[in-house]
Structure formats: C-alpha cells, structure tokens
Amino acid sequence: MRKFVLVTESGSDLPQYYAEKYDIKVVTMHVNFQDESRDDLDINGQVVFDYYDKHKILPKTSGSTPNDFLKVFKEINENYPGAEIIYIAYSAVTTVSYNSAKIAAEEFSNIHMVDSKNVSIGLSTVVIEAAKFIENNPDTTAEEIIKYVEDIRERIRFVFLPQTLLYLRAGGRISNVAYLGAMILKIYPTIDLDDGYLVAGTKYRGSFKKAYEKMINDFFNKFDIDKEFIRAGSTPGLSDEHQQEIIKLIKGHGVKEVEWLEAKAVISTHGGPGAVGFVGIEKKK
Known about the structure:
Blueprint: E1 4-9, H1 16-21, E2 25-27, E3 30-32, E4 37-39, H2 45-55, E5 60-62, H3 66-79, E6 84-90, H4 97-105, E7 111-118, H5 120-136, H6 142-155, E8 156-161, H7 166-170, H8 176-185, E9 187-194, E10 197-205, H9 208-222, E11 229-234, H10 240-251, E12 257-262, H11 265-271, E13 276-281
Parallel strand pairs: 1-2, 1-6, 6-7, 11-12
Antiparallel strand pairs: 3-4, 3-5, 8-9, 8-13, 9-10, 11-13
Helix pairs in contact: 2-11, 3-4, 5-6, 9-10
C-alpha cells in the first residue's frame, strides 16, 4: 500500500521526470488572458511572451482554486486508499493556492499541509528533497516529513535575474521611472526570496553577462552552499551561450552537478524572456 503521496502546484516548475519517478501530483495554477483563463500545465512561457508582443497587455497569473485541489485530492484517495497526502505549497504569501487547498482539505482527514516558502525551482527543490527523504525513510511519519520540509525550506537559497524589466513594469511591480532608469544605466536587479516573499535584491551594472557573473560569485561568497548540486532554471529566450556560460561559472565554484529546468508560464509572466535563476541548499550549521 502506498503510504504517502506528495502534492504541489505547477508553479513549482517540477520536471515531468520527477513527477513520474516519485508519482508526485501537480495541481495547476492559471494564467488569465483578456477573455480566457488557461491552465499553467497546458501552456509555456513563450505563449505569454507572444501574447504580450501582439497585444501589449500582460496576462495575469492566479493560484489554484479549491476545485483544482478537490479534484486532485479525490483522485488520490480513490487511487491510493489509506495513503496520507503531503501538500507542499507554493509560497503562501504570494498566492491564494494555500488557502484554496485548505478549503478543499476540509472534506478529508488525511491531508497534511506545509508552506514551502518558495516558488519555481526553489519549490521544486523542496518537493524533490522531500520525495527522496520518503524514499530513504520508508518507516517515516507525516510529522517527520513536515519537519524535514520545514528544515529544508529554511536552507534553500534562491536568486533570480530578469534579463528585461519590461514584464515587471507591465505587471505593475516596478514604476516607469525605475524601469527607464534601469534601462539607461544598464542596471540588472536580482529578485531574491526572503521568508516566502519575492524582494528586490542586489543591483548589478553592465551587461547581462556581467550581471550574472557577479550574481554567481556573490551567491557562493555569501552562502555556505552544498556543492553536490545546483538547480538552475530559465524562462524561454535565454540563449544557449548564456546557459553554457552560467553552468561553467557555477561549476567553477566546485559544484559537481548543475541541473537545468525551464520555467512554465506562471513564472515566465513575472520574469519575462531570458531570465535565469538558481537554487542551492545551504549546509546545516
């Protein structure tokens, strides 16, 4: 009998490989165009970019609904009777998804919820590590899994660098003045994750390449990262040249493996074309 089933949202950008390997259930988030709402699981970031280029209107993202969760929770209970569901949530302060899951969970007695305080590849890293923990600890309990997730989430270090601020401006997240100033001065600000919040980080001047070179160096100088692996990700539009250079720079800090993921539509809507981010897990002190 299956003992635990992990659930998360599509905003985790969880690769299909891991979803299949660990049988992780993914609940769709949504991207709302002018007259149509589409599931994040059904489209990619390029659809968002093409729409903005054509209409000059940025689609809006929205979290999973109670019905989205209800459908998945019911399917799990039908297919895995007696299993306990561990829902690892997209950062609860950034979306309604956590509250939607809470509403849906009222109909069940086997659902355990924990806020990952992460998004995108940060969230997928938490989920993958939880799946490995369950695999390596077959006699574990739901309480121990939650405790493990709460430990990992506090050691996740996530930084994100947009290649353009156009989409942040279009979404109302920065002003026209800030956008124009950054364009003129060639400033590339990072987006950092702080206790679940996406906040403005370090501002780098120069080319995009110079910006991510400095970002990578600062990342490894600031945090005592486990060098076994780094999980990196990008929105559609990052060139192969940039990708290979970023991998080379990360490995130059002694990292053994760099796993590359592509962001889906939800994250792409905020980051714009060619954005890059990466995640590491800080060692226990």
